[in-house]
Amino acid sequence: MKILVVAHESEFAGGANRALFAILKYWSTNKLVEYEVLLPKANGECIDELERMGIKYHVIKYYKVFSETRNQIQDILRKAKVYSKFVYNKRAAKKISRLLKENDFQLVYSNTRMTSMGACVAKELNIPHIVHIREFGNENTIWGPANIKWINKNSIAIITISKALKKFLVNFVNEGKYYVSYDGVSYTHKRVIIEKKDDFVNILLTGRIAPAKAQDEAIKALKILKDNGYKKIKLHFAGSQTGNSKYETEYYDNLKKMIEDYGLRDYVKFYGEVNDMKKLREKMDIELMCSLKETFGWVTVEGMRSGLLVIGGNTGATPEIIEDEKTGLLYEQGNAKNLVEKIIWAIDNPQKVLEIRKRAYLNSYNSFTIEKNAEEVLDIIKKSLKEKK
């Protein structure tokens, strides 16, 4: 079997391509399947990695086909651009398919739904298409013609990275096409987990500063803790401090204002991008996952593998990773007071927290492996092709 793998970009800018390349490396190392990769740019970290791996790749310009409305007059232009990029991708697919027809691909596997290119190439080559969906999107997302109904129509199988994402999309996809495979997390951190001896609590949030990550909830909780006499506590933010949009810049500025207004300047530290997360996590006690709706939760798994107590919101895929009071603590996302209650419980119950951390550490290594993910995805591809015949 020979597969054409379609990536949405040529960089490792987010988790999607990192997860993809973990799968590809496992396939190559174990010689499980023959594949080539299609990318939209001729330079980037993904290109460098493919060359190191000795994997053949193809390059033609194509676009991501989504945007977001922002309640501005420019939304009309944003929608028009999404449609024009979709049309451009169809033309690019015709062009590249003429060059790929002699390669005898049996299937196209798209790594995300962010680009329509994989489905368009599969249609031109008259072969099946499978898509690995890794993102929720939200009510403001503009998907244009390449919406989930279009993806369903142009795919023989759809893989999601959590049950929560499957549930989110289930009304638009034929049930028999749906599969769930959790990402394999490469992050490892060998750490002896011992009971905390001092009474100072360091709490970490990892990820870019953005409204979807709900860092403001942690700051609200910190204020409540301080007001109730918990002053031996510090909140640490690791992640880029501004995104590309004015919206994210305003959000970061608002966080800084909240910190000043609440008198928390000495209780909060921003690190920006951190190169050595293992070293930083060794100084931490708790990691928070406050996101509105995580599609999976790499950071959640990384926190567990670092021996930390992870406290996460009860939305998205976080409850699929955290079993409350077994492998972490769950709080009512959006309820800062409930988050405070969970943090206080952790402070007051160090022995129970020690047992939770140990269970989480072991479970994170057993449940979210690259080997399992890569083999599941390949099995889904084989099964879907067999059923197609």
Cα-based radius of gyration, to the nearest Å:
22 Å
Strand arrangement, major sheet: 3-2-1-5-6-8-9
What does the average pLDDT come to? 94
Coarse shape: globular
The CATH H-level superfamily of the largest domain is: Glycogen Phosphorylase B
| Cα distance spanning the termini | 14 Å
String of helices and strands: EHEHEEHEHEEHEHEEHEHEHEHEHEHHH
Instruction: Estimate nothing, just give the exact number of structural domains.
Output: 2
CATH class category label of the largest domain: Alpha Beta
CATH topology of the largest domain: Rossmann fold
Q: Can you give the helix content as a percent range?
A: 40-55%
In terms of DSSP E residues, the strand content is: 15-25%
Number of strands: 15
Low-confidence stretches: none
Provide an overview of this structure:
Helix 3 packs parallel to helix 4, helix 7 crosses helix 12 (336-348) and helix 10 (298-305) packs across helix 13 (350-367). The chain has two domains: 2-184 and 369-388, Rossmann fold (3-Layer(aba) Sandwich), CATH 3.40.50.2000; 201-367, Rossmann fold. The strands form three sheets. Strands 3-2-1-5-6-8-9 form a seven-stranded parallel sheet. A six-stranded parallel sheet has the order 12-11-10-13-14-15. The chain has 389 residues and is an alpha/beta fold. It is globular, with a radius of gyration of 22 Å. The mean pLDDT is 94. It has helices at 15-29, 45-53, 75-100, 117-125, 148-153, 163-169, 215-227, 246-261, 277-281, 298-305, 318-321, 336-348, 350-367, 370-388, and strands at 2-6, 34-39, 57-59, 67-68, 107-110, 129-133, 141-142, 157-160, 178-180, 201-206, 233-238, 268-272, 286-289, 309-313, 329-331. Residues 47-185 form the Glycosyltransferase subfamily 4-like N-terminal domain. Residues 192-361 form the Glycosyl transferase family domain. This is Glycosyltransferase family 4 protein. InterPro entries: Glyco_trans_1, Glyco_trans_4-like_N.
